[in-house]
Amino acid sequence: MTQYDKDTTASAVVLYDKGVLDARTLNFTRHYRIKILKKSGYDWANKVLEIPSKSSVRGYTFNLENDKVERTKLTNESVFQEEVVEDFYVLKIFMPNVKVGSVIEIQYSHFLPPFMWKFQEEIPVAYSELELQHNTYINFSKNMLGYGRVETIGPDHWMTRNMPALKPEPFINSLNNYITRVEMEIRSINLPGVFYRDYATDWRQVYKTLNDSESFGKELDRMSFMKSEAKDILEKYSTDEEKLQAAYKFIHENIKWNGISRLYASNDLTTIFKKDKIGNSADVNLSLISLLRKMDYDVRTIVLSTVDHGMLSFAVPSLDKLNYVVGYLKLNGKEYLLDATEPDLPMGMLPNRCLNGNARLMGEYLNEWIDLTPSDKKYKESISAEFTLDETGSLTGKISCERADYAALEFRKELKEESNEEKYIENLEVKYNGLRINDYSLINKDEEINDPVKEEFDVGLTDMMDDLGGTVAFTPLFFRVSYENPFKLENRIFPVHFKQPISKNYVVRLSIPEGYSFVNLPQPVNVALPDNGGKFMYSAAKVNDTEVQIFYRLEINSTIFVPETYPYLQKLYSIIIDSVSKQLLIKSKT
To answer: Distance between CA 148 and CA 164 in Å, rounded?
Structure first.
C-alpha cells in the first residue's frame, strides 16, 4: 500500500489498535500497527505515553526490501520509562529503521487500565477496539468524548472502523479536547486481604491525595530554608505589590523552568534550589507558593489541565487529568493567579498553555471551580500612524505601536527569537513590501514586564500608491493587519477558542498637499456580535480639506464561540477584511 484509499492525503494510517484489560490479572495489553506513507509521517513511528505503571514493551519495524520482508527489532536502548510520581509513568518508544512504506508493530503491557484510549488520531484509524473485562477489584469511571461514531459491542467494550483523521481548524485550543476517546479514572482498588486504596471518588479526595503526596502537599511544608528569604523580603519592601514582585524575582533568579509541565515536584525543592537550579513547572510554582506562605500570604493551590492535555470535566473528578499547579491569592479585593515559570510573564498572568477553561481551586474545607479566562488581561494592541503625501507622490510617516498584557508577552518572545534588531527590521521590510524603515526605537523591551512595550518607526513608503489614471489609491491600514479571513469553513464542527479577550485599536492620519483632494471616503461600519461577544468599528472622516483620519477598533470579549454562533463570527471577520482593504482615493485638482 502506497497510499490510504479512504484518505489519500494521509502521511500514515493506523492499521490496527486493540487494547484489553484482563479481568483476572488486571494487566492491560495494547497491540498497535501503523503504516508510514510519507516522510512527514515519520513521527508516528515514535510513541510518548502516560501510563499508570511500568510497562513491558516489544516491537518491530517491517520493511519490504527486494520483495522480501525484513524485520528490525526494537531494542531496550530505544525504550525509556520515567516514573514521574507514584502511579504515573511516561513511556517513550522510538522505533528503528523507519522508512516510507514501513509497518510499525508495538505491543506493551502494564498493570491497571490506561488513563485514556483514543479511537481517533490526526491520521486515519482503520480499526480500533477497547475491551475492559468486568472485574470486582477496580472501581473506575468512564467518560466517552468526541464527535466520531463508536460502536458498543458489550459492557465496557467498544470498536470503530475507518475512523477519519481529526483535522485541525483555526482557533481551537487543542485537538485533544475534541478527539474521539474514552477517559478512565480509577476511583478505588480493592484486592481483598491484599490491598485497598481510594483515588478520586470526589474532588475532596483528590485534594487529600495531593495534600498527602510527598511530591506535592508534603513538599510544600518541608521548605524550611525559605524562611530567611521570606524575612528578608518582608523587611526590605513595604507594599504588597513590591513584596510579590520581589518574591517572583527571587524565584526567577534561583530556579529556571525546563519547559516541562507537571503537577508534582521532580525532586525535593531544597536540592533543586541549592544544587540543580532548574526544574519543571511544579518545582517552580510550588516554590513560589511556599515562599509566599512563609511571607504570611494565604496562598492556595489551583490544579489544572494544560491546553495540550485536554479540558477537565465538571462531572468526573480526576487526578489523572491534572498536570499543572499554580498559586491563588486574594489580596485587597483583587485575585491573583500566580505562575513564575517564565521571566517575561507579568505577575498575576497565566501563560497561554494554562488558559484551558476551568480549574480546581483546592482547600481543606472548600474546593471550587475557577474560570481561567483572563478577566482584566487581554491581547491589547494600539497602533497610531501619520503619513504625508508630498507633491512628488512620495509617502513618508511615523508609526507607533504599543502592546500590553498578552500582546506584550507574545512580542517579547518573538524578539528573543530574532537574532538581532537589524534582522527584525529586515524581516518587517520583507513582510510589508514597499515599507522602508529609516529609524527605529524600542521602549521597555524587558525593563518593566508589567508595562506595555512600545515601538516607534520613521518610515518611507514606496510603490504603495496604485495609479488609476488621474487618481491614485492608498491602503492606509496595512501594518499588522490581516487581509485573509481565518474562518473559511462553511460549517464549523469545533468551537472557536480565542486564547484571551482581544482589544485592537488603529488610528491613521493621512495628509495631502494643497491642490489635491480626497474622493468618496469609505462608509463607516459599526457591527456587534450577539450577547456582547464582540464588536467592530471603522470610520474614515476628513479633519480638514487636506487631512483624513481612519479609525479601526476591534473588541472580542468572549473567548469561546460554539458552532451555532460561528456564522456571526465568520461574518464579522468578513466585514473586518473588507474594511481594512478599503483604499483612499486621491486626485489632483489640476
So the answer is: 8
Claim to verify: residue 236 and residue 180 sit in the same structural domain: no
pLDDT at 153: 96
Burial 399-430 (b: 16+ CB within 10 A, else e): bbbbbbbbbbbbbbeebeeeeeeeebbeebee
- Rounded to whole angstroms, the Cα distance separating 489 from 510 reads 36
* Backbone torsions φ then ψ of 213, nearest 5 degrees: -75, 135
What grid cell was written down for 548?
A: 483624513
Q: What is the pLDDT of residues 549-581, one digit of tens each?
A: 999 999 999 999 999 999 999 999 999 999 999
- Which residue pairs, CB below 8 angstroms and at least 24 apart, start in 186-192? 186/52, 186/112, 186/113, 186/138, 186/139, 186/140, 186/320, 187/139, 187/140, 187/141, 188/138, 188/139, 189/112, 189/137, 189/138, 189/139, 190/136, 190/137, 190/139, 191/137
Q: Are residues 352 and 432 in the same domain?
A: no
pLDDT for residue 193 is more than 80: no
Q: Which long-range contacts (CB under 8 A, 24 or more apart) does 272-277 make?
A: 273/225, 274/225
Last-in-domain residue among 353, 371, 389: 371
The enclosing domain of 483 has a CATH number of 2.60.120.1130
The confidence score (pLDDT) of residue 192 equals 79
Do 97 and 46 belong together in one domain? yes
Higher pLDDT, 196 or 157: 157
H-only helix segments in 446-497: none
Whole-angstrom Cα distance, residue 239 to residue 249? Answer: 15
Same domain for 392 and 355? no
Residue-range definition of the domain harbouring residue 316: 203-371
Same domain, 272 and 359: yes
- pLDDT higher than 70, residue 41: yes
Contact 126, 88 (CB under 8 A): no
The per-residue pLDDT for range 426-436, each reduced to its tens digit, is 999 999 988 99
3-state secondary structure of 572: helix
- Please say whether the beta carbons of 143 and 88 come within 8 A: no
Q: Which of 559, 493, 206, 175 is nearest to 357 (CA)?
A: 559
Residue 316: pLDDT over 80: no
Asked whether residue 353 falls in the same domain as residue 416, the answer is no
State residue 558's pLDDT score: 93
pLDDT digits (tens, 9 = 90+) for 129-152: 999 999 888 888 888 999 899 999
Over residues 297-322, mean pLDDT: 88
Residue predicted with more confidence, 77 or 545 = 77
User: Is 542 in the same domain as 402?
Assistant: yes
Q: Which amino acid type is present at position 461?
A: L
pLDDT of residue 243: 95
Look at residue 4 and tell me if it is in a domain.
no
CA distance 282 to 293: 16
| Cα Rg of the chain (Å, integer) | 29
